[in-house]
């Protein structure tokens, strides 16, 4: 098989599915991007890095007669009558296994909204019911027979919006928060339950609390804007007694699972897996200093700490990234890896991140679990400058993007020989720069909606830094395991990360072993502590004994 040509075709197809037209004019690549299309900067970087390959491919062929075939690896709607059992996607299979082993409350995706105004409860219930009908994945159950898991699509008419009397919580915010948290944390029975549930608490006739929980096995962050858009349109349509204006769905999630199983096998899978096997073979577990002894078996008890990076520094990071020919994510990842290097003293640093895995047009409008996880591994040395580490991280990230279709679950199977129950395989920490589509404002007629605070009490990994670009600068949150770290340690790490970002902007040429990450206050404390000559010795000691 000619993988050079396949790689070029993959990039051209990926570009086409994202609204980018690539043409060759006078030996130069031209990109045509519609003004209303929001393109992932990582994809543009990938095209740029493979510019020579694409030019070579286009130059050697009569491109006027060879267009990117719309059916190239296309996901088609399956004839369910010909399929005895629908398989799980690789990602679903992993979550199903975790659920069987230890439960999966850490994979609940909640939202709590306060609704003020005249709510049409029938319209709200019908809107949810229609969403359940439209998206099979939300009414999928998972069964097992003879050691083989499979999915079964149940009817939508069994789903109900649960309306509860919440009058007792009207003047008791603390009890209300505890009650909503209990509703969110109620386990899903994946063999019986719908994967979206909604409770409506009636505080009084014109004030309600809506508690919605999805299971990650049926959704991801990119599913949220889809759900909000459809709920808004359907509520409006039912309230106004008119047809809803929603696009039809070409395929369902089960069709994607079938396609994935058929496409990623044999020679195709072996070739794609060979990259990950070579890249991750022998990866070391990260040994961060912890506040508490590491349990023999990891658990998911966790908490969140929020933080902000000021607008000036955020803008400087963007400008610096552009000048270095990298994405903002790559700059943040390089700094994060250096912080982990300084904290652990290890040179082998592996960090996880997530990618949307929605490059195919057929899945754009689907609610479902498409997101994939990548393990990004680099070897660092103290003599490297930040700019050198950044270029290394850039190449690692781009190479990983090229192989992002390989399910993380298959990578773990291929690379990990022996599992350590006290740690996650291949990486223990993550960095995620959220680039999900903007969630549209949820409007339910004249009802006023406000989000309620949700207490996060679980963590999927030892440490995850989440960052989001906003007009006010980068906003962040750190998810951490409370059986390993204290809140004070996490807040200190956040301060060190922030200081390190300042340092790499000011002195990117310095060796990473001397880049300053201590805060100004910590530097002052160290300075005065080391320079002080006054020492209190025990009075009864002699000079000889001292």
Automatic annotation (TrEMBL):
Entry-linked InterPro entries: CAT-like_dom_sf, Condensation_dom
Top-rank taxon: Bacteria
Signal peptide: none
Condensation domain span: 85-527
Molecular function in Gene Ontology: catalytic activity
Protein name per its UniProtKB record: Condensation domain-containing protein
Source species: Paraflavisolibacter caeni
């Amino acid at each position: 098989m000619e993988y050079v040509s396949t790689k070029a075709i993959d990039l051209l197809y990926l570009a086409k599915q994202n609204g980018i037209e690539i043409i060759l004019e006078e030996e130069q690549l031209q990109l045509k991007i519609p003004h209303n299309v929001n393109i992932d900067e990582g994809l543009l970087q990938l095209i740029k890095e493979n510019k020579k390959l694409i030019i070579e491919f286009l130059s050697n062929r009569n491109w006027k007669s060879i267009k990117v075939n719309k059916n190239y690896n296309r996901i088609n709607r399956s004839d369910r009558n010909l399929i005895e059992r629908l398989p799980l996607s690789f990602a679903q299979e992993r979550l199903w296994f975790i659920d069987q082993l230890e439960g999966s409350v850490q994979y609940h995706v909640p939202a709590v909204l306060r609704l003020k105004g005249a709510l049409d409860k029938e319209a709200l219930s019908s809107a949810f019911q229609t969403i359940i009908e439209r998206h099979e994945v939300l009414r999928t159950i998972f069964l097992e027979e003879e050691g083989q898991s499979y999915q079964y699509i149940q009817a939508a008419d069994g789903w109900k919006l649960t309306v509860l009397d919440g009058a007792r919580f009207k003047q008791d915010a603390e009890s209300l928060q505890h009650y909503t948290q209990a509703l969110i944390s109620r386990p899903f029975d994946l063999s019986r339950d719908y994967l979206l549930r909604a409770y409506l608490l009636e505080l009084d006739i014109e004030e309600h609390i809506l508690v919605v929980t999805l299971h990650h096995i049926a959704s991801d962050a990119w599913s949220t804007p889809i759900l909000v858009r459809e709920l808004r349109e359907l509520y409006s349509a039912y309230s106004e007694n008119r047809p809803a204006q929603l696009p039809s769905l070409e395929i369902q999630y089960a069709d994607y699972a079938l396609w994935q199983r058929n496409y990623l096998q044999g020679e195709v899978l072996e070739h794609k897996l060979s990259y990950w096997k070579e890249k991750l073979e022998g990866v070391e577990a990260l040994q961060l200093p912890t506040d508490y002894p590491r349990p023999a078996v990891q658990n998911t008890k966790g908490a969140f700490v929020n933080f902000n990076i000021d607008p000036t520094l955020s803008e400087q990071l963007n400008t610096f990234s552009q000048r270095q020919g990298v994405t903002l994510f790559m700059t943040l990842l390089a700094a994060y890896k250096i912080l982990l290097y300084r904290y652990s003293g290890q040179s082998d640093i592996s960090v996880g991140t997530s990618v949307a895995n929605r490059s195919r047009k057929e899945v754009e409008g689907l609610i479902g679990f498409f997101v994939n996880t990548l393990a990004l591994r680099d070897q660092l040395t103290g003599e490297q400058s930040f700019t050198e580490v950044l270029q290394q991280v850039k190449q690692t990230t781009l190479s990983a993007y090229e192989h992002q279709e390989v399910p993380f679950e298959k990578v773990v199977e291929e690379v990990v020989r022996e599992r350590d129950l006290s740690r996650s395989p291949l990486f223990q920490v993550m960095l995620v720069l959220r680039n999900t589509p903007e969630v549209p404002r949820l409007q339910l007629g004249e009802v006023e909606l406000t989000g309620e605070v949700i207490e996060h009490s679980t963590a999927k990994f030892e440490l995850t830094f989440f960052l989001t670009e906003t007009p006010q600068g980068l906003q962040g949150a750190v998810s951490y395991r409370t059986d390993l770290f204290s809140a004070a340690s996490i807040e200190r790490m956040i301060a060190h990360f922030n200081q390190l970002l300042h340092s790499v902007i000011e002195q990117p040429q310095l060796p990473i072993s001397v880049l300053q990450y201590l805060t100004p206050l910590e530097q002052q404390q160290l300075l005065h502590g080391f320079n002080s000559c006054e020492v209190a010795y025990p009075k009864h000691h002699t000079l000889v004994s001292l």
